[in-house]
Design goal:
Elements: E1 2-6, E2 15-19, E3 26-31, H1 34-49, H2 61-72, H3 78-94, H4 105-115, H5 121-140, H6 169-181, H7 187-198, H8 202-206, E4 213-214, E5 219-222, E6 225-226, E7 236-237, E8 246-249, H9 252-264, H10 286-299, H11 307-320, H12 325-332, H13 337-343, H14 345-364
Antiparallel strand pairs: 1-2, 2-3, 4-5, 5-8, 6-7
């Protein structure tokens, strides 16, 4: 809403308008008539409605995002930082020479639609979450007046469904039995066993040292990771989130497997259990572990999954066997329960059907 004041005299009028805006009102005077001031104020209000602040210097969309990443994402992990930089490169490519004040919901939606033609929906969601956080800051600064990411429709290719990434219970038993019977187990074999029986992330497993194993209490402490790609930190680093710092209980047989292995294998200066001196990153590579898992599953005539799929398998088995969603979330080191609920919706849906049948049986017995 604009207000108007004559700062001159009746003979020599000098009209000024004041338009409400953030971070401060927009003023301009020197108009000979009130009508001229009203017309100019309307132009300003129209610009503000489009998200353009006429008194602020225009900034290129990609440049603003880059500055925002440097200022507010300076302390994130190297892998996470790389994802923000990937988003930056995408914005540079699609919004070259476009001011952030000129981006509209329609133009941004068109960009996401095009981007989603060759990416999974999860990838589109991740990019949009980066942009939304950045735009929130731009609005706080008063740089733009409209959140063009609001009520955006997200599209994209369907990623591999969670249930396609796991082994069924019997398949897990078959895999474990096969590896246990092998006389000469490779590092990859031990890592596969640990992944299946602990649900740890790959970076957490290769970051384990001997002191993390408590063979008396049958626990493993997870409080660090190891950088195994050039996009990650070098050497030891933080876990994915604070909740990923955890101590998990293990079964006695798995702990004995590793206790026996530690006696056979010489220690190393870093005390890493998956140490590989010939490797660029000094640990067994994710590629080598996945290659060994595929080779083993092919031999057992089981559909291939990835090492990360062992984590999903572990969680699914626990849920099917009655472990609470809260326990599984804590054991996996998820940042919140919503992450677990979203990831294992298919399992919970099947469990609900089973519980429905159980409920009918329990309540039916009350009539006896």
């Amino acid at each position: 809403m604009a207000s108007f004041t004559n700062r001159g005299t009746k003979k020599k009028p000098s009209w000024q308008y004041v338009v409400s805006a953030k971070p401060k009102p927009i003023r301009k005077g020197g108009f000979k008539t009130k009508k001229e001031a009203e017309a100019a104020a309307r132009d300003v209000e129209e610009q503000l409605q489009k998200g353009i602040h006429p008194n602020l210097k225009k900034v290129y969309f990609a440049d603003y995002f880059e500055t925002w990443v440097d200022l507010f994402k300076n302390n994130v992990g190297k892998n996470t930082k790389e994802r923000y930089l990937n988003t930056l490169e995408t914005l540079k490519e699609h919004f070259e020479g476009v001011y952030i004040q000129n981006v509209t919901r329609q133009s941004y939606q068109a960009f996401l639609n095009e981007y989603g033609k060759t990416r999974t929906k999860a990838t589109v969601q991740k990019l949009n979450s980066h942009v939304r956080s950045c735009i929130s800051e731009a609005m706080e600064e008063g740089l733009i007046g409209i959140d063009f990411t609001r009520k955006i429709s997200l599209s994209g290719l369907e990623g591999k469904k969670s249930q396609e990434k796991v082994l069924h219970y019997e398949e897990g038993k078959t895999l474990l039995s096969y590896l246990m019977d092998k006389e000469k187990k490779s590092q990859s074999d031990y890592l596969i066993i640990l992944g299946l029986m602990s649900g740890m992330r790959f970076g957490e497993m290769v970051g384990l040292t001997r002191k993390d194993f408590d063979f008396f209490n049958h626990t493993i402490t997870i409080n660090k990771t190891w950088g195994y790609t050039n996009k990650m930190h070098e050497g030891f680093g933080n876990t994915k989130n604070y909740q990923s710092h955890r101590v998990i209980y293990m079964d006695k047989k798995t702990m004995k497997i590793f206790a026996d292995w530690f006696e056979k294998v010489p220690d190393n200066i870093l005390r890493l259990i998956f140490y590989s001196p010939s490797s660029k990153y000094k640990v067994i590579s994710n590629g080598a572990a996945n290659k060994q898992l595929k080779f083993t599953l092919d031999k057992l005539d089981i559909d291939t999954i990835s090492i990360h799929g062992l984590r999903h398998t572990h969680a699914s088995i626990l849920l099917y066997e009655g472990a609470s969603i809260y326990y599984v979330s804590e054991r996996l080191g998820h940042d919140n329960i919503d992450t677990t609920l979203k990831e294992y919706t298919h399992v919970l849906r099947e469990l609900r059907q089973r519980d429905n049948e159980k409920t009918k049986s329990i309540l039916g017995k009350m009539y006896v």
